[in-house]
Amino acid sequence: MKPLGELETAVMDIVWAQPGLTVREVADLLAHQRKRAYTTVMTTLDRLHGKGLLGRTKDGLAWRYAALMSPAEFEQAIADRLAGEFLRAHGEVGIAAFVDAAGTDDALLDRLAELIEQRRAER
Q1: Are 62 and 22 in contact (CB under 8 A)?
Q2: Which residues contact residue 68 at a Cβ distance below 8 angstroms, ignoring those fewer than 6 apart?
Q3: How far separated are the first and last CA of the chain, in Å rounded?
Q4: Backbone angles phi, psi at 55, to 5 degrees
Q5: 96 in the Ramachandran plot: left (φ > 0), alpha (ψ -120 to 50) or beta?
Q6: 3-state SS assignment for residue 58
């Protein structure tokens, strides 16, 4: 799962807020932010469908799009991917960077310790 571009993010925000929209409906809602060509919105929705982020059902001649995961699930998938890539690339230095990033925030450090213990218990 890769991070989304600006238009993809705007489209997903709309579909998360109002599932079951057609291309025309998404384009109309996007026009409040910045007018986009209908075909641009159609291509973006089709690409998001191809990436597995949107499902679609036929409604007459149109498709209705709905998100296949919640914003929280999407955020978790992105974080998992980025963390995995970072740790594969940087190994022990990457682990130290996560701990350093938590800094002196005891709540974050406690949560990190909890997650480590939970993972060990699952093995």
Answers
A1: yes
A2: 52, 53, 54, 55
A3: 26
A4: -100, 160
A5: alpha
A6: strand
Tokens of 27: 């384009």
pLDDT score, position 33: 87
pLDDT value for 26: 97
Tokens of 77: 């998938």
Q: Which helix (H) or strand (E) holds 10?
A: helix 6-17
Biggest CA-to-CA distance, the chain: 57
- Report the C-alpha gap between 110 and 114 in whole angstroms: 6
Burial class (CB in 10 A: 0-12, 13-18, 19+), 64: middle
Contact 7, 27 (CB under 8 A): no
What's the predicted TM-score (pTM) here?
0.78
Residues 6+ apart with CB under 8 A from 3: 78
Report d(CA 64, CA 21) in Å as an integer: 5
pLDDT at 1: 66
Q: Which residues in the chain come in under a pLDDT of 70?
A: 1
CA angle, corner 50, sides to 46 and 55, nearest 5? 75
